[in-house]
Amino acid sequence: MTACKNKQVLLISRPKGIPTADNFQIVESVLPVITRDQVLVRNIYLSVEPAMKGWVSATENYAEPVALNSVMRSFATGVVIDSLHPNFLPGEFVTGLFGWQEYALVEAGVIDRKIAAHSLPISTSLGVLGLNGMTAYFGLLDIGQPLSEETVVVSTAAGAVGSCVGQIAKLKNCHTIGITGSQEKVDLCRQLYQYDQAINYNDEKFEKELAQACPKGIDVYFDNTGGIISDAVLQLLNIGGRIVVCGTSSISNWEEHPIGPRQERKILVNRARMEGFLVFDYKERYPEALAALTEWVSAGLIKYREEILCGIEKAPCSISSLYRGKNLGKCLIQIYKI
Amino acid sequence: MTACKNKQVLLISRPKGIPTADNFQIVESVLPVITRDQVLVRNIYLSVEPAMKGWVSATENYAEPVALNSVMRSFATGVVIDSLHPNFLPGEFVTGLFGWQEYALVEAGVIDRKIAAHSLPISTSLGVLGLNGMTAYFGLLDIGQPLSEETVVVSTAAGAVGSCVGQIAKLKNCHTIGITGSQEKVDLCRQLYQYDQAINYNDEKFEKELAQACPKGIDVYFDNTGGIISDAVLQLLNIGGRIVVCGTSSISNWEEHPIGPRQERKILVNRARMEGFLVFDYKERYPEALAALTEWVSAGLIKYREEILCGIEKAPCSISSLYRGKNLGKCLIQIYKI
């Protein structure tokens, strides 16, 4: 390999709330020469996640904030183009935290896994067969523990995680209710993701519609939003209800200490369980989840959608676009055609 | 048995918030004649519980509200004085939901258990060897799941439940911190209940003192209060922390929808679990808890205190007295000397 140029997206300032294009800068650097047992990956797809809002914030999070003037943290899927590590060969497809950049020169430990050869597109490794699918799998099954015929409610129901949660719950014979933010997504929930009911939280009658959709109350709430959507759901929680706290996307800024109705009494009276979880804590069980998800997706039992933007120049504004709720599927940026 | 008079405490109106003497009336009724397979119990000790505030409220609770103009619901311990049921004999001591009254003519199903013969006073059957002790036992061990050397924080730490939680946690080799409401109770926590530290939440420096007492953060929070005390505790929660929601005594009125800081993000980032529980759900395992508690109390490993008021006339004002936080131990009303 001769030295080559590497376009990178750097985080140059911390947003207040949702990150916008202004918080990033695209630079071109010279790629260092591969050394020791490193692996050089050419990124094909970059991932865009709601969680990125937390990653770039200096406020409390589960990971160190991305340092200023460093490459934006991101999952990506790419192809090995050079390797000094015996486990990786040029031509193999791999996925990991490769960052928003064209090339990633990484230690082997940064690579999450090779992408198994199957008939599904490699882009799925960042969505339904990646962290999104696995988040749905472990969050719903391990934390939510839905039983047959229970009512499962999902917020951001048409999103990359939510859509998968709804479909796994359906496979477990649950009554599934999706909460989402537009009529277009309501239709997607009903038609593609097979929710029994879907509700637009922007509707004036949202609370009433939710109550009507859950005549037997709510047993499991897979919460991707927090905030007033969750307040409404908790009103309908059954005794022994479980709240899987997976995301808080409805709250744009935690630095201002948002307030809401106290839930202690509800949790007590209903003997409910509210539990946060992080998919990274399940690393040892990723193979289990991937095997199940691959089988379900291959058999057409779980549907997925992707919205693929082209070119690394789309990266800086992609997070804010996600929070505007306009995308209809997993958001990816393709930066290399194979 | 000839017909006899029965003094009873009736609930005559619903309080806004904490029940006061005005909400009750003492009447004298004629005891019906024993019939079928009933048991006639002469109550010796009546119990006074913080939970009674919930029982008399028409707002959501885990039990039907006590009906107006009926005998106040209460646990009591008494002696069988007449029985048409083969399992119960005159002279046996029993405990159950006998109500605030001198005599309880009950079906056998209302009797929770006979009180085993041991060297501890029968009054303990309503406290440390009753629901209070069992609440501590199941809440801490089943929901809180403390590990050796973890930090366990208890609110209402000197109370009938809290004092038992702190001591069981100590038996499990935890670092124990009690939160309570006066210097007198702080001393009690340190000296009698052997907390490693005890803090008065009325102190100006409460939050700072709490942080200093928990240099390794908080792993288990046994929450009897909710409200701003709990808000402070949650600030110090460790990853994987558990919040046992057992009571909400710091909130005097839930009808006004109290608000507070949203905790979703804390729960998520810390992969924490907040879980409500109710001791009545553990009925089948009461013998296990009673055996352990009896052993610990008999061996002097768990200390307890009781404050015994004399005469049924003390019942109507006993709940509000409890909420003023002046009592230093399990509050009982003795209405019969044996």
What does this structure look like?
Two copies of one chain form a homodimer. With 338 residues, chain A is of the alpha/beta class. Chain A has helices at residues 52-55, 131-144, 162-171, 183-191, 206-213, 227-234, 264-269, 286-298, 318-323; strands at 5-11, 24-30, 39-47, 70-71, 76-83, 93-96, 103-106, 111-114, 151-155, 175-180, 197-200, 218-223, 237-245, 259-261, 273-276, 306-310, 330-334. Chain A folds into two domains: 5-127 and 305-334, Medium-chain alcohol dehydrogenases, catalytic domain (Quinone Oxidoreductase, Chain A, domain 1); 131-280, 3-Layer(aba) Sandwich (Rossmann fold). In chain A, helix 2 (131-144) packs across helix 3 (162-171) and helix 2 crosses helix 8. In chain A, the strands form three sheets. In chain A, strands 3, 5, 6, 7, 8, 16 and 17 form a seven-stranded mixed sheet that branches. The longest helix of chain A has 14 residues, at 131-144. The model of chain A has no long low-confidence stretch (mean pLDDT 94). Chain A is 23% helix and 27% strand.
Quick gist of this model?
The structure is a homodimer of 338-residue chains. Chain A has helices spanning 52-55, 131-144, 162-171, 183-191, 206-213, 227-234, 264-269, 286-298, 318-323, and strands at 5-11, 24-30, 39-47, 70-71, 76-83, 93-96, 103-106, 111-114, 151-155, 175-180, 197-200, 218-223, 237-245, 259-261, 273-276, 306-310, 330-334.
Measured as a percent range, the helix fraction of chain A is 10-25%
CATH C-level category of the largest domain in chain A: Alpha Beta
Which pair of chains has the greatest number of interface residues, and how are they split between the two chains?
A-B, 36 and 36 residues
- CATH H-tier superfamily of the largest domain in chain A: Medium-chain alcohol dehydrogenases, catalytic domain
- The helix-strand sequence of chain A is EEEHEEEEEHEHEHEHEHEEHEHEHE
- Computed over alpha carbons, the radius of gyration of chain A is 20 Å
Bulk shape of chain A = globular
Low-confidence stretches of chain A: none
Average pLDDT, all residues of chain A: 94
Number of strands of chain A: 17
**CATH architecture label name of the largest domain in chain A:** Alpha-Beta Complex
Number of helices of chain A: 9
Q: How many domains make up the coordinates of chain A? A: 2
Largest beta sheet of chain A, briefly? 7 strands, mixed
CATH topology heading of the largest domain in chain A: Quinone Oxidoreductase, Chain A, domain 1
User: What proportion of the residues of chain A form beta strands (DSSP E)?
Assistant: 25-35%
Give the distance, in angstroms, between the N- and C-terminal Cα atoms of chain A. 19 Å
**What oligomeric arrangement do these chains adopt?**
homodimer
Coarse structural class of chain A: alpha/beta
